[in-house]
Amino acid sequence: MKKLLAPLVLIGLVSGCVTTQSPTGRSQTLLFSAAEMNQLGAASFEEMKKQQKISKDTKLNAYVSCVAMRVTAALPDQTQGWEVVVFDSPQVNAFALPGGHIGVYSGLLKVAENQDQLAVVLGHEVAHVLAQHSNEQVSRTQLTNTGLQLADVALGAGGVSNRNLYMAALGLGTQVGYILPYGRAQESEADVMGLELMARAGFDPRAGTLLWQNMAKAGGEQGPELLSTHPSHGTRIAELARLEQKVMPLYEAARASGVKNCQITK
């Protein structure tokens, strides 16, 4: 019976999938609706808040929220509110989840030295959500594990028996110990979209190369967790240097409109 059910499950999944194009024109196969992904993102974020220590540093929280809110305000669809949480951890990492959730580890701020460098990271992570990369990853997980079901995504309540697998697919692999890396095409797409997004928010895109140079120096030869599944430092820095000049007019227009600076108050 199990041998008969597996092909039927797979057929059902494939028949319900949608093939669409990413914002840069790349073909994507998506099994889940935006509502389903938002629910999974919210459940995963709640799980993270239970697992990780949340920072109580009000000045640090205000600074990170300022940068995050400016970045998300530049999104095409501004109807969704975003929850921003700073986790008290030496990890050099950050993530964004469907449904409007951003997590930043305090250790990142030792490498992202100013508002512009932090915006590079947050723009990149939010771009993963905007381009539905999480949906692609979770869809791939579902197709390659046909016995798993996503009917109930209440992760904390045990609705998904392999919640670490799905959380890894959402880009939380370094936190849950199960790595499902984004592909190079997805990472490059997030770099392009993220740099444009942060420039539209009034952050200097020239910080991109400086940020990744800092990243390359952090954490020894392997680099920090944030880079564990990303393209090589040299490749990323070269591509960002090329993109910087392209999005500079967006940055200059935003600055001319009088956007406020984000900084940690003394």
Overview of this protein structure:
This protein is mostly helical and about 270 residues long. The protein has 9 helices and 5 strands; from the N terminus they run H-E-E-H-H-E-E-E-H-H-H-H-H-H. The strands form 2 sheets. Strands 3-5-4 form a 3-stranded mixed sheet, with helices on both faces. It has a two-stranded antiparallel sheet with strand order 1-2. Helix 3 packs across helix 4 and helix 7 runs parallel beside helix 9. The N and C termini lie far apart (about 65 Å). Residues about 1-15 and about 145-160 have low confidence and may be disordered.
List keywords for this structure.
single chain, mainly alpha, two-stranded antiparallel ribbon, 5 strands, 53% helix, 8% strand, disordered N terminus
Brief write-up:
This protein is mainly alpha-helical. The protein contains nine helices and five strands.
The residue ranges in which pLDDT falls below 50 over 5 or more consecutive positions are 1-15, 146-161
Mean of residue pLDDT? 77
Please give the order of strands in the largest beta sheet: 3-5-4
Shape: globular
Number of strands: 5
Number of helices: 9
- The topology string of helices and strands comes to HEEHHEEEHHHHHH
Query: What class, by secondary structure content?
Result: mainly alpha
- Share of residues in helices: 40-55%
**Largest beta-sheet details:** 3 strands, mixed
Rounded to the nearest angstrom, the distance between the terminal CA atoms is 66 Å
